[in-house]
Amino acid sequence: xxxxxxxxxxxxxxxxxxxxxxxxxxxxxxxxxxxxxxxxxxxxxxxxxxxxxxxxxxxxxxxxxxxxxxxxxxxxxxxxxxxxxxxxxxxxxxxxxxxxxxxxxxxxxxxxxxxxxxxxxxxxxxxxxxxxxxxxxxxxxxxxxxxxxxxxxxxxxxxxxxxxxxxxxxxxxxxxxxxxxxxxxxxxxxxxxxxxxxxxxxxxxxxxxxxxxxxxxxxxxxxxxxxxxxxxxxxxxxxxxxxxxxxxxxxxxxxxxxxxxxxxxxxxxxxxxxxxxxxxxxxxxxxxxxxxxxxxxxxxxxxxxxxxxxxxxxxxxxxxxxxxxxxxxxxxxxxxxxxxxxxxxxxxxxxxxxxxxxxxxxxxxxxxxxxxxxxxxxxxxxxxxxxxxxxxxxxxxxxxxxxxxxxxxxxxxxxxxxxxxxxxxxxxxxxxxxxxxxxxxxxxxxxxxxxxxxxxxxxxxxxxxxxxxxxxxxxxxxxxxxxxxxxxxxxxxxxxx
Amino acid sequence: xxxxxxxxxxxxxxxxxxxxxxxxxxxxxxxxxxxxxxxxxxxxxxxxxxxxxxxxxxxxxxxxxxxxxxxxxxxxxxxxxxxxxxxxxxxxxxxxxxxxxxxxxxxxxxxxxxxxxxxxxxxxxxxxxxxxxxxxxxxxxxxxxxxxxxxxxxxxxxxxxxxxxxxxxxxxxxxxxxxxxxxxxxxxxxxxxxxxxxxxxxxxxxxxxxxxxxxxxxxxxxxxxxxxxxxxxxxxxxxxxxxxxxxxxxxxxxxxxxxxxxxxxxxxxxxxxxxxxxxxxxxxxxxxxxxxxxxxxxxxxxxxxxxxxxxxxxxxxx
Lengths: 497, 318
Hints:
The structure holds 2 protein chains of 2 kinds.
Chain A: E1 5-14, E2 17-27, E3 31-36, H1 43-50, E4 58-63, E5 66-68, H2 73-78, E6 81-84, H3 96-100, H4 115-128, H5 144-157, E7 162-166, H6 174-189, E8 193-197, H7 201-207, E9 210-215, E10 218-224, H8 230-237, E11 256-264, E12 272-277, E13 281-285, H9 292-298, E14 307-312, E15 315-317, H10 326-332, E16 335-338, H11 342-346, H12 353-362, H13 375-384, H14 401-414, E17 419-423, H15 431-446, E18 450-454, H16 458-464, E19 467-472, E20 475-481, H17 487-495
Parallel strand pairs in A: 3-8, 3-9, 6-7, 7-8, 13-18, 13-19, 16-17, 17-18
Antiparallel strand pairs in A: 1-2, 1-4, 4-5, 9-10, 11-12, 11-14, 14-15, 19-20
Chain B: H1 2-5, H2 8-15, H3 18-33, H4 40-49, H5 51-65, H6 73-85, H7 94-118, H8 123-141, H9 152-158, E1 161-162, E2 165-166, H10 167-185, H11 187-197, H12 199-204, H13 209-235, H14 246-256, H15 269-287, H16 292-317
Antiparallel strand pairs in B: 1-2
């Protein structure tokens, strides 16, 4: 059969890291092609290249044998490539029809926008999906499922032949998933090619024909789904060995420091309990965006959970935590929160290393007191963390990613903190700095600290931590000692829950 | 254009507050045209005229460093001027006037801060609206007529000198020094620097961001009241028009001083020289026989220059 789209030898790097490395992909008409892989395997990047969001560093894209190139989603749509992204891209306060024709509004003879024509064509496209939505309804009034259908209708109206669905079911309930699958089958039967990215096994086996597995930016294999089983698919997705990046695990742990009971992230999620003891590093593992971050951020008031009690060192944490004073109150209780986004939420890039480290000590004191310089603390911190910089007055923006991350961590190690909540301890950090950060966290735990960490890199969590909670669908689905865990076991625990 | 802007020498030049260049340029013009004007006695008189502006700038730089802005200074000056000159408080002492003035400014600043930080209202709109309300309020109280005289004591203090320099100028210098020490030595100064660099990161580092913004506005209101007292002493009469252009001049001086709106950089000295540049500008204009309309045009052009410079800086930084 002749292919509709061929992506040939595509590579793309961000900064120093290769997100996609020489991947080729063929899409055939009348098929649903599943794209699978762990967090950060390169699925989304590859599809954003096909959708025109990113441009490949090298490699070519062919449609019906002709080389095509484009530099925006709008141009990609002109080549018949329609995308429904995870983050929906409709404007909430415009109507369905206005969204569909955004930037390409038809005009009447007098130069005014032809609303009648717009609405009629929109109703047509919606009808093809069997939807009876009013084209003049505001998008803000639609459910998430309906918004996704509108995006698909958008592609139908533009006469797209390739539809990319990036985790379309992540926010849908079971009934909506059925409706969506019905539409996907209809598109397939009309000879369209559909790319389907999802972490839900049963969906892959229900509606996909072919599956391509990516790992670390490379293609592992492309197979017909009929030849695969869930177990063999998971085996293809994992299969890396641990190297000796990691310090030895804890031999003994102390008393429970953080105790979470009957915690419900939202009204529909199952309640869970978890605890962290002094001297241990505990991970929240699982696929990305399953509620790990929501849970951690509800402890600092950035997210409002539905219910639950949290006890820190025997003191009940008042829920919901205040957004404005939550972090200060936790600091006072000896709890530090290390945010994921080093550049936006973590560091003051224009300020010096000294300022960045000392701010946690400074912020414990009242406004009108004299700000001490904390030279000793800063020097010991920089030395013990081996932060490579000319001196403490260098601006943080001049440091490498690894050293920036160490400065951020140093801020909390310098203060009187004995519980660390960490998001992504080593994001965008080279391998050498990674192993140093692991060593520092282990030292912190050995000195009686308690660490709760989440990360997209499952390997990292297995190697670094003592105990893992697997989070899926906003709840804890499994708990295991990290020594027994593998990527395979974690993935299976998450996906079979 | 963009490539040129990234040249290291130009980048370094851009990181020096432009007020230093403007000040040096004006000084040079004056030195060439009227060298004999460059003596402390004469300059002191000219600088004394912009002392209210210079003091107002100290508050402006504080709020602009936490990425806010305060345009209500004009209203504060009017109201304080009215309290003192209207005869509303007959026979009140100097201390009473100072106290009620400072209390008024502080209260207005606190209100601004609360609206900006807690209610998340646009700082430009809040402070401008407050200024308009105060202007209307004063006009209502005085029924459109300018109020009476300022108690003589104000003028007497205003006209004293210490050596060659007028007291108000020294007072301004002292306040500037105080602000420098305050911002470099206190915890609050560290908070201001961190919120100005990144409010998001400051929040995650445990800095009370809201409180810092509220306090910055409150202090700016307090400082505006000091400026109002000096301004009132300088004109010696009540007025319903005094000081209305000062807030925007203060913003311009602060921008020229390297504190860029929306990017909390810069120190205290940059804006200080920004205000001094306005003093020199008036001297130079007077020397060349340019009248009030010409001065207005030049003032406007300087504000425009500051705005263009701001665009250049922030565009370059991204």
